[in-house]
Fold these 2 entries.
Entry 1:
Amino acid sequence: MTGPQKTTLPTVASLAQADDPDIRERVRALMISASDQAEATFRTAVRPIYGVAENGTPDQLGSAVLVDIDGTRCLMTAAHVIDANEKTTLYVGGDTTLVEINAEFDATVAPESGRRDDHYDFAIAPLPETMLSEMSTLKFVTGQEMAPTSLGRDKLLYTALGFPNSKNKAALAGALKVRGQLYSYSSFARFQPALALSLDVSGDEHVFIDHRKHGRDETGRKVLSIAPRGLSGGAIIQAADFGDREVLLGRKPPEPKLAAITIELYKSHQTLLGTRVDAMLPAWRAAQ
């Protein structure tokens, strides 16, 4: 009598590169659908952050995520974005206009060598009612919409959302009102041991995303990836878990979850790095 047979599920990479065009198209369509759902779910929770240029017009600096932490509505972003407050008043995209950021942040401490060597690089602030009154139509991500620590990292599809400078240069003169353009980039997790070692991090508190010269647009066409300057502080969404057989076969819809915020691109490793939300929140709670 023979024992139970084991079925080995093909990897995402092997399916995406399969000789059968029908399989390739089905996987590509599933990836696009998961990315689109991630963007649709979280797009109003991801906001641009601006300073004011010398000529008085908005100057796009980075991105942020609106979150609800234990019933407190907060703004979460990269600490190096908030550092710009030393030189300019900062504003965040509200319902219809830019809202002055009048909040007190708890942020990671920059090393003596500078913020460049802060490899956690996050800041969180509760928002006062004066700001919230101008953000009533926006989404605040709740704890149930945040991803737990993930295993099987290489099978997770992530979507980074934010407002890169290259897409948000044009501002309306006069009033603090802008036409921000949200950008998304989707790729799979790809842990980089050499990068983690050079940054002196374990990898457990970060998300490592494959970032190549080319990406895919909303139709799946191959296009040049946009440089992520300005994406810093934006959301990294766990769009789909392709380690789940039912998701990979299209029998179960993916459940997008907020996993991290973008902090840096390491071109030499072709990696977009994010700090995990489940690493940030315990530190923030301990500081309250």
Entry 2:
Amino acid sequence: MEQQRYYHRHHPKKPREAVEVKGDKAVLALPVEELGLSENVLALLKNGRVATVYDLCARTEKDMYKIQTFGKKHLLEVKAKMKEKGVDFLPPLPPKNPPAEKASESVNAEAKQAAKPQKEAARKDSKQPQPQPPKRDFLSDRGQKPEKPTAPKAKRDEPKPTLPLKPEEWKRVNKNGKWGFHDGLKTVIQPSFDEVFMFHEGFASVEVNDKFGYIGEDGEWVIEPTYDCAMSFSEGLASVQIGEKCGYIDKQNVLVIPCVYDACTQFENGRAKVKQDGSWGTIDKEGKTVWNK
């Protein structure tokens, strides 16, 4: 069965462990459509596999930013609607390991406590007469070499990468609140954008001053930031948003499918999903749509 992809494809790589979510069970069971969110935010939540209020309450605010192009303004809208229902996100997770200083202090305290009975026993033994060691027969030891103590083997550091990563694998880097890219060896695109998303087909969607555009692998603009939202390219087309409506552009920034839809997905095998007036349909690259009955 063909998997549907909504605006964003990035999901947490590791599922969250089971957590206790507090709140009215009837409210937690509500679908996110019942919160009164905008169509754009609903499309983002669907792409992040958030179907119910429980799915929201089982995440932290930081988890929400793992959904591609889900930003602060979207988070504030969701938090306001959740507050009306009397629910909220999970608090931030505590660090898994205690601070190194506290851990070392506890270890030292336990070691001192364990050493006390040993010291007492040593004091008692010192008062008793100690047996004399047997005389060593030096003649029997002739020709035998003493064993040398073996030094522990030093751990080898993991080898560092010697080749740069492919553009599709570049890592995002943040400096002073701005984002750029690192190829595993060096920073290839300096952090100068409000948000960046992974490269696809040679282009990366980036955000500057609440507007989205595309840069090439050299970090230069290939499509100026004029859109309210812009998805990654797939099969030569990318979904963009103007106002509250979305459509598709090609790599020459030609609007090949007009922005008349409430929500769009990326193209896969020549087809994509679009939503209009509450109904979903399947669209091809020529703009022909077959609506679901």
